[in-house]
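Bumping with the actual sequence this time:
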Amino acid sequence: MARLQDKVIIITGAAQGMGETHARLCLTEGAKVVLTDINAEKGQALATKLGDNALFIKHDVTDEEDWQHVVSATEAHFGPVDVLVNNAGITMAKSLLDTSLDEYRRILEINQVSVFLGMKSVVPSMKKSEHGSIINISSINGLVGGAIGYTDSKFAVRGMSKAAALELAQYGIRVNSVHPGVIATPMIMQGDTKTAVENFAKSIPLKRVAQPEEVSAMVLFLASDDSSYSTGSEFIVDGGLTAQ
């Protein structure tokens, strides 16, 4: 049997990038996947391509009413939520002095507040089945320093995951964070950026950047019953970068 047979999964930021890769793998493993994203055109096109077990819902992850709509629509279409993958996020690489208050608040809203709203919104649905897995995508910058704003939000995701794991264990709901390192997405593997990434890869113990599918494999593990005794933990996918 497939590892996620008939599990109902919500994945945010799933219209493209790693969210799309997560969705494809979960569907391959038998799941029913709700893809959410602010980009309705790409999201709907992808869901149509993926078939009947994929549903797209336009979603502003910073809006509490949108979250309530996503959960209720998921339940109506597929049933109670088994897994939430809080994948949506943005990056920012400005210095402390160059970052405006509006920019700072925006990255916290998308990267941090959305995770709080997502967890809060799906718990009542998961409690109906007395089980669940919440997977919060952080970053290696949730473990070590990086750009202001982005690092702050990713450290927060790590802490929120631990706090929620302790609170929700009594309901059979597990909460973990995933910390990817440098991932070979189309956005960074082109032009001058590609050269910079390839040079940086030489400093990674495994001497290469990760493929998106390698992060998705970790998401699959945490979504499945294979990780039934893992909660409140960090799962690092960085080729040994933070071990140095």
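The tokens above came from a reply further down the thread. The radius of gyration is 17 Å.
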